[in-house]
Write a structure and sequence with these properties.
Structural class: alpha+beta
Strand order of the largest sheet: 5-9-6-8-7
Number of helices: 17
Order of helices and strands: EHHEEHHHHHEHEEHHHEEHHHHHHE
Strand content: 5-15%
Shape: globular
Radius of gyration: 24 Å
Distance between the termini: 26 Å
């Protein structure tokens, strides 16, 4: 069972950076509900075989329960969820531990080449927005138990929450649990309050932060690099406020006006109907961006690693948000100090080379097979189904409907090379949009960087703060 609460770190204000992520950790560290101690709650979970986790990311807060259906396990899980929603307890010592934990995450950044490099890139690309990295010591010190409580619980309003349940249960059991434990949750806050978040912006061009370096003194010589740039979100919205489906509709109309060959008119008509359905489908960009990522990944691996021998590993990843109207892509490179600069240039050439070196049908077919096989393998797991169901009930993701699950296989099979290029056009790969950061570790590297890390907010100099400290935060690193 998964509870998703919309908002996440995106709704943190400038004065309360880190409030949501520290607040969620505080609630998890406390572990108390109502008059029950942490030990009693843990014993309740052990007796009913319930595993519970609470996390947050940029878009939402997520609470997940894994449980057995034996011995009223489902009702026990719903009862625990009811207690969290109705009778959560906020403790000062839990808040202190949570704040100390994030302080240690921040201080450990300069010791990791990958995290320091990734963090420096993210701050540069997102114009220093701290909502997408670990909170700094200055931000952490300004937080209070009351501020983190408000930041989290203000998101827990009825219309802003959705619950998905996956398992082998009867309709009567689930309805009974929902009525008894969710139907009795009282509204404790104004459900009409609309969540607002500060605008998210990519740093404007030109900027001297578009190419940066991190040097780390270490006994082992190694290097890594990240290259990133803007992309739309999963549903075709861009950070400039554009709806990409409006331009798609005009392209589809133009294609329909092309003359048809008489001998294949019926086949072409069916094909165009399928094409029109794909391009009008709300998941069009989610599907085509996924296929594009597979194709670029394959090209990077065969060109930069196998042919040129410039990297140990290289990968292309997309971060496509559902609620926020933006996304980005990141190329991750693992190399040596002597080859990393050439590797970065080679990756940029591959990324920009899809027009000069056209996508072949075999590349698209391979990408389709990879994603369809992954889908077929993962569809057997409850966790994957929870992911498919996420945001299906959310008014803030209006384009997601049941067809996004039903038509998934059909959409992959129907995609054409032209569709992939429509998605590729939405990735900003020009020099003014690309951000890159190279990290080098070695015996001499530390002499080129600064000494002790400054714990103030000046996070863009020297060896920098946070990267992938928590799996709940979107980061370039794997």
């Amino acid at each position: 069972m998964r509870l998703i609460v919309g908002g996440g770190r995106a709704v943190e204000t400038f004065e309360s950076r880190g409030a949501v992520v520290v607040g969620v950790r505080t609630l998890s560290e406390g572990g108390r509900v109502g008059n029950f101690s942490r030990e009693q709650v843990e014993l309740f979970c052990v007796n009913h075989l319930i595993n519970c986790s609470l996390e947050s990311n940029e878009e939402f807060i997520c609470m997940e329960f894994r449980f057995t259906l034996r011995d009223n396990g489902m009702r026990a899980a719903f009862q625990l969820l009811h207690m969290v929603l109705e009778h959560s307890v906020w403790l000062d010592d839990a808040f202190d531990r949570a704040r100390q934990l994030y302080l240690s995450y921040y201080r450990s950044i300069p010791k990791s080449l990958e995290r320091a490099t990734a963090h420096k890139l993210m701050l540069a690309m997102l114009n220093g927005d701290e909502r997408f990295v670990e909170p700094s010591p200055k931000s952490l010190q300004s937080l209070t138990l009351e501020s983190v409580n408000d930041a989290v619980m203000n998101q827990f309003v009825g219309h802003n929450m959705e619950v998905s349940v996956v398992g082998d249960f009867s309709e009567e059991d689930i309805e009974s649990s929902i009525l008894d434990y969710l139907g009795t949750v009282r509204a404790t806050r104004d459900s009409q309050i609309e969540q607002q978040h500060s605008p998210i912006m990519f740093r404007s061009y030109p900027s001297d932060l578009q190419f940066q370096q991190v040097f780390l003194k270490d006994t082992d010589e190694r290097a890594c690099a990240y290259i990133a740039g803007p992309a739309p979100n999963r549903w075709g919205f861009t950070i400039e406020g554009k709806d990409l489906f409006e331009s798609l509709n005009s392209i589809s109309i133009d294609n329909d006006e092309e003359p048809q060959s008489e001998s294949h008119s019926e086949m072409k008509s069916c094909r165009k109907d399928l094409l029109r359905k794909l391009r009008n489908h709300p998941l069009f960009f989610g599907i085509t961006m996924g296929l594009l990522a597979e194709i670029i990944n394959s090209r990077l691996f065969t060109t930069v690693r196998d042919s040129l021998g410039l990297t140990y590993d290289v990968s292309f990843e997309l971060s496509l948000f559902d609620r926020l109207k933006l996304g980005w892509y990141v190329i991750s490179v693992t190399s040596t100090p002597g080859k990393v600069y050439k590797a970065v240039d080679a990756c940029k050439n591959v990324l920009r080379g899809l027009h000069s070196s056209k996508i072949a049908q075999r590349e698209l077919d391979r990408a389709k097979r990879t994603l369809l096989m992954r889908h077929e393998a993962e569809i057997k797991s409850n966790a994957y189904w929870l992911g498919l169901l996420a945001h299906l009930q959310a008014s803030t993701v209006p384009r997601k409907d049941i067809s996004c699950i039903k038509d998934l296989t059909l959409l992959y099979e129907a995609a054409t090379i032209e569709d992939i290029y429509l998605a590729y056009e939405q990735l900003k790969v020009d020099e003014s949009s690309l951000y890159s950061c190279i990290g080098i570790a070695g015996a001499q590297a530390g002499e080129e960087g600064s000494g002790e890390e400054d714990e103030s907010d000046q996070g863009l100099q020297g060896v920098i703060p946070a990267g992938r400290g928590l799996s709940t935060m979107t980061r370039p690193t794997t």
